[in-house]
Amino acid sequence: MSHARRKRLVHKAPPKMDEVRNELNVTPLVDVCLVLLIIFMVIMPMLARGKEVPLPRTKYHTEEPDKQQPIVAIDSRGKIYVDKEMVDDLEMMKARVRDEWAALGIETRVFLKASRETTYGKVYPVIIAIHDMGAPGIDLGTNEFKVKGEE
């Protein structure tokens, strides 16, 4: 290799830097947003089950995970819901719970959520109807009552 060529390679001028750009690189932003969207699309159906009702508060209760059992809810006006769909009467509720059991392939316990404003007189017939269906049991939904100072 000639001396002039070696000198050109060793003492090569530094590469020219492009000017600073004010553009935002959106590709990583789009990638992150798509991943978050997919995560929320997968998680949301698991979080939102059954009709939302204000549940009674109890001091002691279990925190078992969701067992994918049928959910029956009673709102403050006494309207009955199976999952999130309102049903007209107890017979329709029984049919919907049986449909969910058929989809699961097994008769499971029924999760009953009754609004804290609902009177016992509106809840009792639903409990008896679920019992008459032959449900292996009923789980009652509650929220934890926290005493100030306890965490």
Q: Beta-strand level of the residues, as a percent range?
A: 5-15%
**Backbone structural class:** alpha/beta
What overall geometry do the principal axes of the alpha carbons give?
elongated
In whole angstroms, the N-to-C terminal distance is 78 Å
What is the assembly state of the chains in this entry? single chain
Characterize the main sheet.
5 strands, mixed
| Model regions low in confidence, pLDDT < 50 over at least 5 residues | none
Structure, briefly:
By secondary structure, this protein is of the alpha/beta class. It has a domain at 48-59 and 68-144: 2-Layer Sandwich (Nucleotidyltransferase, domain 5). It has helices at residues 3-10, 26-47, 90-104, 120-132, and strands spanning 57-58, 71-74, 80-82, 85-87, 110-114, 138-140, 143-144.
Question: Would you kindly provide a written description of the structure presented here, covering whatever features stand out?
Answer:
- This protein is of the alpha/beta class and 151 residues long.
- It has a domain at 48-59 and 68-144: Nucleotidyltransferase, domain 5 (2-Layer Sandwich), CATH 3.30.420.270.
- It contains four helices and seven strands.
- It has helices spanning 3-10, 26-47, 90-104, 120-132; strands at residues 57-58, 71-74, 80-82, 85-87, 110-114, 138-140, 143-144.
- Strands 4-3-2-5-6 form a five-stranded mixed β-sheet, with helices on one face. The protein has a two-stranded parallel sheet with strand order 1-7.
- A hairpin with a 5-residue loop joins strand 2 and strand 3 (80-82).
- The longest helix is centred in the first third of the chain and has 22 residues, at 26-47.
- The radius of gyration is 30 Å and the shape is elongated.
- The chain starts with a helix and ends in a 7-residue tail after the last strand.
